[in-house]
Amino acid sequence: MTETVGGSAKKTAARAAAKPAALKIQRVYTTEGRHPYDDVTWERRDVVMTNWRDGSVNFEQRGVEFPASWSVNATNIVTSKYFRGAVGSEVREQSLRQLIDRVVKTYVGAGKEHGYFTGEQDAEIFEHELTYMLLHQVFSFNSPVWFNVGTSSPQQVSACFILAVDDTMESILNWYREEGLIFKGGSGAGLNLSRIRSSKELLSSGGTASGPVSFMRGADASAGTIKSGGATRRAAKMVVLDVDHPDVVEFIETKAREEDKIRALRDAGFDMDLGGADIVSVQYQNANNSIRVSDEFMHAYEAGNDFGLRGRQTGEVIERVDAKELFGKLAKAAWECADPGIQYDDTINDWHTCPESGRITASNPCSEYMHLDNSSCNLASLNLMKFLGDDGRFDAVTFAKAVELIITAMDISICFADFPTEPIADTTRKFRQLGIGYANLGALLMATGHAYDSEGGRALAATITSLMTGVSYRRSAELAGMVGAYDGYKRNATAHQRVMRKHAAANDLIRTYGGNDSATHKVATEAWQQSLEIGAKNGWRNAQASVLAPTGTIGLMMDCDTTGIEPDLALVKFKKLVGGGSMQIVNQTVPRALKALGYLDEQVEAIVEFIGEHGHVVDAPGLRREHYEVFDCAMGERSIAPMGHVRMMAATQPFLSGAISKTVNMPETATIADVEEIYYQGWKLGLKALAIYRDNCKVGQPLSAGKGAKATEEKKASDTVVEYRPVRKRLPKKRPSQTVSFTVGGAEGYLHAGSYPDNGLGEIFVKLGKQGSTLAGVMDAFSMSISVGLQYGIPLEFYVSKFQNLRFEPAGMTDDPDVRIATSVLDYLFRRLALDYLSYDKRAQLGIFTADERSAQVANEYGAPATSDVDLEGLRGSVEAVEAAPKQVEAAVETPRHVGSSTELLELHLGKAADAPLCMTCGTKMRPAGSCYLCEGCGSTSGCS
Fold first, then answer.
1. Residue 614 has pLDDT above 60, yes or no
2. Which of 46, 409, 549, 765 could form an S-S bond across to 752 if both were Cys, CB 3.0 to 4.6 Å?
3. What's the number of CA atoms in the CB half-sphere (13 Å) around residue 468?
4. Phi and psi for 401 in degrees, rounded to 5?
């Protein structure tokens, strides 16, 4: 008995000795005995966020505490978005210290509880380092962390979710429910519908199946009803269908068909009645759609062969289609309305670390997170510009140390995180998917003198991405030795190791060009070698480590010039100033880039001055033509070619566990064949997913052709600049007016319109919402701004063209027989004003007609008896608007003195409108951020956080 006990004691001691010690945390940025807060200059600021168009206050909190180095914009966004507690109450957070402490202390506490640190000293170092990096904008967690961690709310830390749906009614209804729960929490979700039987297959009862597209209608309606996180934006979602699904053509053409209906009905003047089938079918607008193509299909496309569509129940081919024709339909639909995007199924699953646990079938709404069904991913992104020294050297060693700390924190978060559904919680805890990424790549490339679309630029981007993922997996392997590999690793060990070797082999193939890329590549190669060695012994803690997300709101929090992998939007930016006001500035990366290229201070000053005046570098004094490409941007005089975006994605994709959130911008003149070639090259270059957007392809987007042509003609006509100043024509004390009561989507309001005595509209007042409410204030201010514009000579038809078809809630049926359906209150108001104050000819150009006019048109065109006798020629001259002086109007519209965002500033320089929605919070034009849109003014996004 004594021997047995002694033997057991020896075995226990041996096991304890064999257990790996916890990681030793090292200081990178901080000094022992000194807290990071002590080295920062703090100041008190007043955050008053207004709608720049009418001056109404959207948010106000005074006396908040932030570092002096933080911009006004970052301060405003963090205060309004991330501070917790009721505004105006004592419990409301008032300092960045409180926000960072709330999050960091939660992470440190969980790290202690779950054995991540050797002792209190390591825990303190971890706390200080994490605090320093957040305080100095070195990185940021994704928005759900700032919303939820350390609060009484569920500790949801993930922004990206993938769901699953099977071919049963119970599963389909559960899909609606789970999506709703995720949308309610402010996040987005994606799923693959390919398990659902097609409309060409039979049910067990003998009837015909509805097909996935029909069930999309219910999910779309649900998403359209539930506002994400209680905000004004719609829920973000992705729906995917495999290319071999029998309903693939219907799926491909769904959104394009909706756009066609809207366009045709609006332009032809048809009444979109409540009982009409067209109104019921104008749907599918709340999701991004993507087609999953296989290598088999792409080879058939290359060879010009046919391709089999397979039944969902038996897997047998039930129809054969021409692969080229099908791919052409995909390209045509994307050309028409930007949907569907494309996902390359075999490429995705070839890089899958856990194939024994299931295939990767879908992605999150922005397409960067791709892993198992019913799973989630929490994100964090580094600010690359924080690692660029004054000497132009990228500090790869410090970057690697920062990645180690961040990936450790991200893994700790899974230990305490809450999830919206139990299946998602179970999968995420078993596979521990992480998504580290970066922002400010475009700024980094420009600052180091690299063109975005260049071999050197791609080499630097590739080596940084490889280093980030290599270090992440190395730390993941170290964590596995300390607290264990992820639960699903043992079953997937062979596959996971194979994918790690693929990453390392891709790293070996990077061609470097000297300088930053060579130095970074050396550190990355070492990281991959160590990751393979440690992982072979311990396994890995995380099934995936990295993605490239849009970094919308958190990019603004870090004061980044560019988001995610995107290039710079334009060379001139809109900047808010302390104490209010704003100014136009040339990007700070421009002078840095010029110095990196060897220009003298005097030359830099002259070039920057030229850019500030013209918005581009073409013909800038002293700038060599071979350097023009360094300053190419996403938009502007010299915009990056579509394939330039694709090549950058291809350079970084082999070094990412997931994919890349990015939309390839294409000019309005791009052809269907161009889109087809982009989608084909995406497959050839090894991307996992790709989406395109062709300028002005969406109905209701601002048209740019007229202004663009006009600007070109004016530029060619003369170098002489004649300035015309608008003159305000005030209304007399006594003037005619009318009041219209209306209802839009259940919201009641009143429109009061005042006219000049000679019958020209001169003012409007809109009553909507309760007196004293934010909505009522916004509408009052909006009315004043429109009224002043009218009095300065801006034609009513200009406003109508901008605001009709604008989409936001409330929307739907109205009580106006002439405008039965409105996509928003503004859509209704300006169509009503057009009907009352514009001539028939002008309304005809805008596609706006009365009910009687539409009836007469139908009678004239189709020979049916009209319901009323209408004299169309009489109507054409019945209403005439007062024409302002043409030159004064052009000056007022073409050369506005104030803009509210960088996108609007870019419009001013381009002389044409940019395809971007208006922010529903502050009213400014948003800017692209990955597959979403981002508002620079308030941090709102149009997609998942």
1. yes
2. 765
3. 31
4. -65, -40
Q: Quick one: average pLDDT of 687-712?
A: 62
Query: Cα-atom radius of gyration of the chain, to the nearest Å?
Result: 29
Q: Is the pTM of this model over 0.90?
A: no
Q: Strand pairing partners for 710?
A: none
Range 855-859 contact pairs with CB under 8 angstroms and sequence separation of 24 or more? 857/268, 857/269, 858/270
From the list 142, 364, 516, 665, the catalytic residue is 364
pLDDT in tens, 883-915: 333 333 222 223 344 566 666 666 666 655 666
Q: Which amino acid is at 730?
A: R
* Cβ-contact 662, 650 below 8 angstroms: no
- Statement: residue 501 has pLDDT above 90: yes
Q: For residues 253 and 257, what is the distance between their CA atoms, to the nearest angstrom? A: 6
Annotated catalytic residue, options 337, 366, 919, 932: 366
- Measured between alpha carbons, how far is 927 from 253 in angstroms, rounded to an integer? 27
| DSSP code, position 739 | E
Q: What stretches of 312-427 adopt beta strand conformation (E)?
A: 317-322, 341-344, 375-383
Range scoring the smallest mean pLDDT among 34-48, 268-282, 441-455, 674-688: 268-282
Q: Which of 178, 253, 336, 368 is catalytic?
A: 368
Q: What is the widest separation between alpha-carbon atoms in the chain?
A: 114
Q: Is the dihedral of CA 219, 223, 229, 230 positive or negative?
A: negative
Q: Coil, strand or helix: which one is 722?
A: coil
pLDDT in tens, 50-82: 766 566 788 899 999 999 999 998 999 999 999
Whether residue 896 is preceded by a cis peptide bond, meaning omega within 30 degrees of 0, is no
Strand partners, 694: 666
CB 401 within 8 A of CB 382: no
d(CA 704, CA 903): 14
The tokens of 424 are what? 């998602």
DSSP code, position 583: E
For 278-291, give the secondary structure using H, E and C.
HHHHCCCCCCEEEE
SS (H, E, C) 305-323: CEEEEECCCCCCEEEEEEH
The H or E element that residue 576 is part of is strand 572-576
Which residues, in sequence order, are CB contacts of 320 under 8 Å at separation 6+? 306, 307, 308, 309
Hey, what are 152's tokens? 């009484």
d(CA 499, CA 505): 10
Residue 366 annotated to the active site: yes
Report the C-alpha gap between 418 and 416 in whole angstroms: 7
Strands 306-310 and 317-322: antiparallel
Residues found in the chain: 945
pLDDT higher than threshold 50 for residue 270? yes
Domains assigned to the chain: 25-51+68-151+363-553 (no CATH), 164-357 (3.20.70.20), 568-638 (no CATH), 702-724+898-945 (no CATH), 737-883 (no CATH)
Helix (H) or strand (E) holding 749: strand 747-755
368 is catalytic: yes
How much is the average pLDDT of 369-391? Answer: 97
DSSP-derived letter for residue 342 is E
Our answer to whether residue 935 is catalytic in this structure is no
Q: 768 and 825 in contact (C-beta within 8 Å)?
A: yes
pLDDT in tens, 313-358: 899 999 999 999 999 999 999 999 999 999 999 999 999 999 999 9
**Pairwise CA distance, residues 175 & 237, whole Å:** 12
The structure tokens 């005439």 sit at 880
Helix (H) or strand (E) holding 406: helix 396-416
What residues form DSSP beta bridges with 576? 582
The first and second tokens of residue 481, run together, are 């030795």
Question: Which residues pair with residue 529 across a beta bridge?
Answer: none
Q: What is the pLDDT of residues 587-610, one digit of tens each?
A: 889 999 999 999 999 999 999 999
